[in-house]
Amino acid sequence: MIKLYAFGPAFGLPDPSPFVMKAELLLKLAGLPYQIDTRGFNRAPKGKLPYIDDDGVIVADSFLIRTHLEQRHGIDFDGGYDARSRATARAVEKMLEEHLYFALVHERWMKDENFKRGPASFFKGVPALVRPLVQRMVRGQVRKTLHGHGIGRHSEAEIAMMACADLDALSALIGERSCLLGERPCGADATVLAFVAGSLCEQFDSPVRAHAEKLPNLVAYRDRWMAHYYGGGQEAAAAHAA
Questions:
Q1: I want to staple 100 with a disulfide (CB 3.0 to 4.6 A). Which of 57, 166, 173, 208 is the partner?
Q2: CA atoms of 155 and 103, how far apart (whole Å)
């Protein structure tokens, strides 16, 4: 059985990382049996989650996990969709993973109230005496990463505007369809659901979430596919993942 190394449920989501959630959804789409292990972060081969252990074969990174599943298990996540549609799906994934992701990280980590509501919980295992220092150090590293990416060089209002533009583009592409490309999921829908659910996460108060809530097709997409894959909304998803 495939073992998926994850953080575990948090913030009312199956996992706080959209990349971990994407990897789990790919396994669900593939119909492959798997189990989740939340104790593997310190052994992560690339220092990040997710990664999988597929009968002794270790694969890190959600894109490489998808490639591995396709090659080893003969899965065609985009079967039936033409090359142009597949290219669109790939472009959407990169918009979400390489741009919207960093805006969400900013919302969660750089805004004090959101940090207290969410990421601060990651430090519960740190001794109370040094916890504030460790939190400041890690937040400083996150700030440096955001600055290096480029998005951290903008004002909060500008970052939110950019993130909302991503959501508008995604909403326009999905339109009235059930899935990104049509009436059945493709591989990129694993990414889309992870990021739509993350953008709508009720744990955090932000203009990005407020904007996402005004896009009814994205809300419906989240509700429909969370119910399908996790048996309900955010709370049910977290209970399922636990």
A1: 166
A2: 11
pTM: predicted TM-score of the whole model, two decimal places: 0.93
Domain count, the chain: 1
Burial class (CB in 10 A: 0-12, 13-18, 19+), 79: exposed
Residue 174, C-beta contacts closer than 8 angstroms, at least 6 positions apart: 180, 192, 217, 218, 221
CATH number at residue 102: 1.20.1050.130
- What is the signed CA dihedral for 237, 239, 241, 242, rounded to 10 degrees? 160
By CB atoms closer than 10 A (0-12, 13-18, 19+), residue 22 is buried
Distance of CA 192 to the CA centre of its chain: 8
Q: Which domain holds residue 59?
A: 2-241
**φ, ψ dihedrals at 14, nearest 5°:** -60, -30
Q: Are 238 and 14 in contact (CB under 8 A)?
A: yes
Asked whether the bond before 45 is cis by omega within 30 degrees of 0, the reply is: no
